[in-house]
Structures are given as C-alpha cells and as structure tokens.
Amino acid sequence: GESVGLHLPTLSVQEGDNSIINCAYSNSASDYFIWYKQESGKGPQFIIDIRSNMDKRQGQRVTVLLNKTVKHLSLQIAATQPGDSAVYFCAENRFSGNTGKLIFGQGTTLQVKP
Amino acid sequence: GAGVSQSPRYKVAKRGQDVALRCDPISGHVSLFWYQQALGQGPEFLTYFQNEAQLDKSGLPSDRFFAERPEGSVSTLKIQRTQQEDSAVYLCASSLAGGGDTEAFFGQGTRLTVV
Questions:
Q1: pLDDT digit string (tens) for B20-59?
Q2: Where are chain B's structural domains?
Q3: Is residue B40 within 8 Å of residue A104, measured between CB atoms?
Q4: Could you tell me which CATH number the domain at B5-114 has?
Q5: Could you tell me the CA-to-CA distances from A10 to A47, A110, B37, B51, B57 in Å, in that order?
Q6: Interchain proximity A42–B41, CB inside 8 Å
Q7: C-alpha triplet A3, B99, B71: angle, nearest 5°
Q8: Which of A8, A12, A29, A104 is most buried, judging by how many CB atoms fall within 10 Å of its CB?
Q9: How far apart are CA A74 and CA A35, in angstroms?
Q10: Residues B35-52: b if buried by 16+ CB within 10 A, e if exposed
Q11: pLDDT (mean) for B82-96
C-alpha cells in the first residue's frame, strides 16, 4: 500500500551541529509535502512545506529538499538547538476528488545533546 | 482564540462509556480534520469536513465513531461504547481553504484513556 516513512526512528546530534532528517514516500502522484514538529504533550506544529514543482525551499534555519526521482524528501536544520528536540514527521497531502488528507510517517525523534 | 482549541485535554472513560470530544477551529477556517494518534505513532486520518459537509470519513475505524460540524465551525467527535483500543490522542486540525492543500494548524489534542 501507499505509505510515507522515515528512515531512522531516532537521531542524536550535538548542539550547534546541522541535523538532517529523511523521509521516503511511495505515491508518485503526491504533489504537496509538509514537515511537522511535535513536542511532548502538544499537537504537531507546521515547520515548512514544499510543492512538487520545487526541489528546495528554505525557511528560518530549516531547508526542505525534494527529490521526485527517488521519492525522497529531507529536512535540514542548521545549528541545531536544544529547543529543536522533538519528534519530526513528514506528511504527504493525498488528494481524493476535491479533498485532501495528510498521511503521516511514524516520525523521527531528534535528541540534541548540549 | 488564536489557535485550534480542543477540550477536554484529558479524558478517562470506563469501557463501554460514550465520550464526546470538542474542537474549536480557527475562526473562518473552511477545512477541519480529525486525526487519531496512538502512542509512538504518527497521526492517522479519521475524517474531514469542508464547512458543515463531511466529505471524507474513510478513516473512521468503526460505526462507533461519529463526527459532526453542524454549523461549519465547532466540531464534535463522538465515540460510543468505548473500548481499550480507542485509547489514543485525538487531534483536530483546521485550514483556511478547502481541498486540504494549505497549511493545517493542529490543536493540542485530547488524550483519551479507556480503562
């Protein structure tokens, strides 16, 4: 079946280093992807999105890369800070008719070591 | 309010009890989604509303689950005869436009524990 998945359940980085979180998707028709951050006890928080007509998009300290050839996207966080510690989800917007729904992967836990 | 508000934050129900979970979306948002998040998992889609119309309920796990949004604003997710496998965090999200391809804002969720 179609799925969105992340490569690693846990990523541990040193404060100040760059972090790269990866995600693979299987639905080649998908054209909108979102990264969410979820802290303990909170709902997912939007970080950045990208549409399939782009291969890179930058935000504040974050960059999302989309490789449609291999159906892969990544989230890069520059100069990782302790406040970045959370679970990160990639999500694919799956359209059906005139509605869309987010399909989430299982998440990668980012641990930032001081 | 500024964001999506869900109540209650925590709910403990005895098995067999009915529960109702409330979602107040951001004012003016057309789309409203309900998701279920089991411990250690990503959120899973339950149902979608565009204004008051429930356009997709394909993710509802059984006929014990029912959602409504009668006036196109506040939504309620009702679970009848709760079972232990219903224990999860229930998340509500809203987005400004219809179609689901714009940023969705999530509430903090309701943690349901069925004992």
A1: 999 999 999 999 999 999 998 999 999 999 999 999 999 9
A2: 5-114
A3: no
A4: 2.60.40.10
A5: 19, 6, 18, 38, 32
A6: no
A7: 120
A8: A104
A9: 9
A10: bbbeeeebbbbbbbbbee
A11: 96
Q: Is the pLDDT of residue A1 over 50?
A: no
Mean pLDDT of B95-109: 82
Query: How does residue A6 score in pLDDT terms, banded at 50, 70 and 90?
Result: low
Task: Please give the structure tokens belonging to residue B4.
Answer: 């999506």
Assess B68–A contact: CB distance below 8 Å, yes or no. Answer: no
Shortest CA distance to A54 belongs to which of A42, A66, A37? Answer: A66
Q: Do A102 and B33 touch (CB under 8 A)?
A: yes
Which domains are seen in chain A, by residue range? 4-113 (2.60.40.10)
Contact A102 B45 (CB under 8 A): yes
